[in-house]
């Protein structure tokens, strides 16, 4: 991507676009990490196939949840407020329908990772290709319209609080600290208080799955790997 969007707005503030783009960063980051890890399994390093299979479940649930949010909330709102985006949104929804069966295929493939690696490689390669186009389209056409939204809804209960903390720990990994400082200002005090523990736990998870917790310090939606 020649000119990936900055995570922060032009005036240096964070917005819901920042949170949205850090999720895109996470999807790109992890699909690359899956590809590298599966290459090592093909080369004979099978020590972490169980951790990889478990991580796939988390990745697909996160991606599916992101798309459900778009389908049921973001896109309907944008379609109403910005009717000129109708054709773009229709295309994005169609791409969601292409991605969903691939996620199901990935469930089956990663369940058999200990004995068959190449089906997982095919799924990750196909998904990476679809996401490349899909995320770029969203960043070009959707992100500019959510740059001004600067209120993140607080968690409504403890379950949601924990879910948000884990989600932000995932999407924060590999993001420059000055970006995170601005983004976290949008969050409720209760959620901010949960983040250090959640981020430490996620770093340990990365060590177990990928063999490292290093992920760079990106200021755009493209991982700094």
Task: Please write the string of helix (H) and strand (E) elements.
Answer: HHHHHHH
Strand content: under 5%
Alpha-beta content class: mainly alpha
Low-confidence stretches: none
Essential attributes:
225 residues, mainly alpha, 7 helices, 69% helix
Provide a concise account of the structure shown.
With 225 residues, the protein is mostly helical. The protein has helices at 16-42, 49-81, 86-111, 118-141, 158-172, 177-184, 189-210.
Description:
The protein has about 220 residues and is an all-alpha fold. Helices cover about 70% and strands about 0% of the residues. It is built from 7 helices and no strands. The longest helix has about 35 residues, at about 50-80. The protein is globular. It starts with 15 loop residues before the first helix and ends in a 15-residue tail after the last helix. The mean pLDDT is about 95.
Summarize the topology:
Elements: H1 16-42, H2 49-81, H3 86-111, H4 118-141, H5 158-172, H6 177-184, H7 189-210
């Amino acid at each position: 991507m020649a000119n990936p969007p900055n995570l922060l707005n032009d005036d240096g503030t964070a917005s819901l676009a920042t949170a949205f783009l850090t999720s895109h960063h996470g999807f790109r980051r992890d699909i690359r990490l899956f590809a590298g890890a599966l290459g090592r399994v093909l080369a004979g390093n099978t020590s972490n196939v169980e951790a990889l299979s478990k991580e796939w479940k988390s990745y697909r649930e996160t991606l599916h949840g992101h798309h459900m949010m778009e389908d049921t909330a973001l896109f309907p709102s944008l379609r109403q407020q910005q009717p000129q985006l109708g054709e773009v949104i229709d295309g994005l929804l169609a791409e969601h329908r292409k991605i969903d069966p691939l996620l199901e295929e990935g469930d089956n493939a990663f369940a058999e990772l200990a004995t068959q690696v190449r089906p997982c490689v095919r799924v990750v390669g196909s998904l990476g290709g679809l996401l490349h186009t899909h995320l770029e389209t969203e960043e070009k056409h959707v992100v500019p319209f959510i740059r001004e939204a600067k209120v993140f809804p607080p968690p409504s209960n403890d379950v949601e609080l924990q879910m948000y903390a884990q989600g932000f720990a995932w999407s924060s990994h590999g993001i420059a600290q000055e970006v995170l400082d601005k983004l976290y200002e949008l969050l409720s005090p209760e959620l901010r208080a949960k983040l250090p523990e959640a981020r430490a736990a996620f770093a340990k998870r990365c060590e177990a799955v990928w063999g490292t917790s290093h992920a760079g310090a990106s200021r755009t939606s493209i991982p700094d790997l």
